[in-house]
């Protein structure tokens, strides 16, 4: 099952010639989730082949460079004849802010707009996966990060061994793969452990939005396949990062190292690094080698891990969506 990330905007605060402001899409088996929607996001979607057929937009916080593009995107969808509801999710205060997009300009939208305010740990449950919000640390804003977390997968079924044991192909194979022992015609009981391997990990992608390095991200990103972390500044602007509630590239790398993630992707660069953010990559790799410097249009494929797991990760019972 395919899972990929498409970076649509990697600039902080304002667009530049090289980079648009914050937005990225997570595409899972044809289903698209949009995270943040800065100015011009709809054009980036067209440019980089991200479908307008999405139904969910998640906002990390409500600063203009992460939100204002939703007005144009919704208007375009309305002009295209969309009738299906659009679901918007964000932190506390999102309903008052985002519902304004519905009333902006004269023409009303041709489809329902549903806005849900989320608290940290309030899962948005979907088939086989969930979007899990957590508390980020962005000075002066209610800010969330999001983890896209797949459920633990069943172990692999061994068809060759099943035939050796005389288990007829068909419904009994399905029962065994679902974890249920079966009784054969000769009276033998076949336990699933004889034919099914250990449970296998699902995938996890974590998107921080704007944040200082924080324990919340480390906890949410523990053993994640990919962490997309803001890196607004380099080492020389470390004090500025603290003042504005942002992170340096090195700080993002420390989070990735402490969370034991697979790959770190840096985004949300100050305009001073717009043409060349390679120094930010160098600073991060001094701490965490497997670091990629994001750029608009970059696609990151997220393969399955090969390490089996013994039990599912605990998850909150609070759900939305």
Describe the protein's architecture and organization.
This protein has helices at residues 41-47, 64-67, 69-79, 94-98, 100-103, 159-164, 171-177, 215-220, 238-244, 249-259, 278-285; strands at 3-9, 23-28, 31-35, 56-58, 86-90, 113-117, 123-126, 129-135, 144-150, 182-183, 189-190, 204-207, 226-230, 263-267, 291-293, 299-301, 319-320. By secondary structure, the chain is of the alpha/beta class. It has two domains: 3-153 and 199-315, Ribonuclease Z/Hydroxyacylglutathione hydrolase-like (Metallo-beta-lactamase, Chain A, 4-Layer Sandwich); 159-194, no CATH class. The strands form three sheets. Strands 15-14-13-12-9-8-7-17 form an eight-stranded mixed beta sheet. Helix 10 runs parallel beside helix 11. The model is unreliable at 310-319 (pLDDT under 50).
Please summarize what this structure is.
The protein is an alpha/beta fold and 321 residues long. 24% of the residues lie in helices and 23% in strands. Helix 11 links the parallel strand 14 and strand 15 (291-293).
Give the helix/strand class: alpha/beta
The tally of beta strands, per DSSP, is 17
Name the shape in a single word: globular
Structurally, how many domains make up the residues? 2
Under CATH, the topology of the largest domain is which?
A: Metallo-beta-lactamase, Chain A
What is the fourth-level CATH superfamily of the largest domain? Ribonuclease Z/Hydroxyacylglutathione hydrolase-like
Number of helices: 11
Helix content: 10-25%
Instruction: Please state the CA-atom Rg, rounded to the nearest Å.
Output: 22 Å
Let me know the average pLDDT. 92
Beta-strand residue percentage: 15-25%
CATH architecture of the largest domain: 4-Layer Sandwich
Low-confidence stretches: 310-319
* Highest CATH level, the class of the largest domain: Alpha Beta
Element pattern in H and E? EEEHEHHEHHEEEEHHEEEHEHHEHEEE
Give the spatial strand order of the biggest sheet: 15-14-13-12-9-8-7-17
């Amino acid at each position: 099952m395919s899972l990929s990330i498409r970076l649509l905007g990697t600039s902080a605060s304002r667009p530049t010639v090289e980079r648009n402001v914050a937005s990225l899409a997570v595409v899972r088996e044809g289903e698209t989730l949009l995270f943040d929607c800065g100015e011009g996001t709809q054009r980036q979607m067209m440019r980089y082949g991200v479908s307008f057929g999405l139904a969910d937009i998640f906002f990390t916080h409500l600063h203009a460079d992460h939100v204002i593009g939703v007005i144009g995107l919704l208007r375009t969808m309305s002009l295209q004849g969309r009738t299906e509801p659009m679901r918007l999710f964000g932190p506390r205060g999102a309903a008052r802010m985002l519902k304004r997009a519905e009333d902006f300009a004269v023409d009303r939208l041709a489809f329902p707009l549903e806005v849900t305010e989320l608290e940290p740990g309030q899962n948005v449950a979907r088939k086989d996966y969930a979007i899990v919000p957590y508390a980020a640390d962005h000075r002066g804003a209610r800010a969330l990060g999001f983890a896209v977390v797949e459920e633990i997968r069943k172990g692999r079924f061994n068809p060759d061994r099943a035939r050796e044991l005389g288990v007829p192909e068909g419904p009994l194979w399905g029962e065994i793969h679902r974890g249920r022992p079966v009784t054969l015609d000769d009276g033998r009981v076949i336990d699933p452990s004889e034919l099914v391997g250990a449970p296998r990990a699902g995938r996890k992608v974590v998107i921080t939005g704007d944040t200082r390095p924080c324990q919340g991200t480390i906890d949410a990103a523990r053993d994640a396949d990919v962490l997309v972390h803001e890196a607004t500044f380099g080492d020389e602007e470390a004090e500025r990062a603290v003042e504005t509630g942002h992170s340096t590239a090195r700080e993002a790398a420390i989070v990735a190292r402490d969370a034991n993630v697979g790959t770190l992707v840096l985004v949300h660069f100050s305009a001073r690094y717009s043409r060349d953010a390679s120094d930010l990559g160098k600073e991060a790799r001094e701490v965490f080698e497997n670091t990629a410097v994001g750029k608009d249009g970059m696609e990151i494929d997220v393969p399955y891990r090969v390490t089996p797991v013994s039990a599912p990760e605990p998850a909150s019972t609070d759900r939305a969506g």
